[in-house]
Fold this protein.
Amino acid sequence: MRIAAGQFSAGTDQAHNLRAIHRLMEAAVDGAAELLVLPESSLYASTEPPAVLKSVAESLAGPFISGIAGRAKELGLPVVVGTTEAGTDGLPWNTLVSIDSSGVVSGTYRKVHLYDAFGYRESDGISPGPIMAPSLLQFGELTLGMLTCYDLRFPESTRYLVDAGANVLLLPAMWITGPGKEDHWNTLVRARAIENTSYVVTANQTGPLATGYSIIVDPFGVVLANAGETPGVVFANVEIERLNAVRVKVPSLANRRFRVVPGATSGA
């Protein structure tokens, strides 16, 4: 399976963000991708307090996701993208949406671990997602699971997906810039790949707010593609044969003696 990771810098103009995404989708098709992964918060991103997100959030039937779904159908390209989803009441969710090649929403993941760190409080403007059975995407023998940005710092999040059958981990992000943040990003992404003997496909926003450097890592921790600092698309072939060979050589999943179980829901 050929997977693409697309990165760009979202702003406050949703129509502009949508046009940028369409360009990334077209580049992914030109590169023969079978799936494009796009960043977290692709609908809207700014330095404003997170409370503003309620006023810009959209339903999954709104113009942003509908605009991506329509182009996905035209191009025959499945897409995973992050948006700000209007809630039924209260604050919105930070949501990942998977869209299949016919333009149908095929799965969602609402971010569980909110970014209340490094002096920022995402929870001031976003509701934590409920802890649910993972929404998995199937591409032949490859099973793809979704998680978002700050979830990367919680190894149980990836293990929860792997226990459900995922062998490819998709990680849209807006990894905010700051001292040590690029090093954390690269270290944690590779660690999640190595400890789970799974592929990890990341799609990060670029500057000025985020670090860029979307990477695709194989189950042995080898970086297969790195997008650097500028907007664009990178590609990698994700192969079940490579995954199986690594898991024979490093059978850590088979050897482990602990399992991850859901903890208390947020607010408990």
The chain has a mean pLDDT of 96. DSSP finds seven helices and 14 strands in the chain. The chain has one domain: 2-255. Helices lie at 14-30, 53-56, 63-75, 155-163, 181-196, 240-249, 252-255.
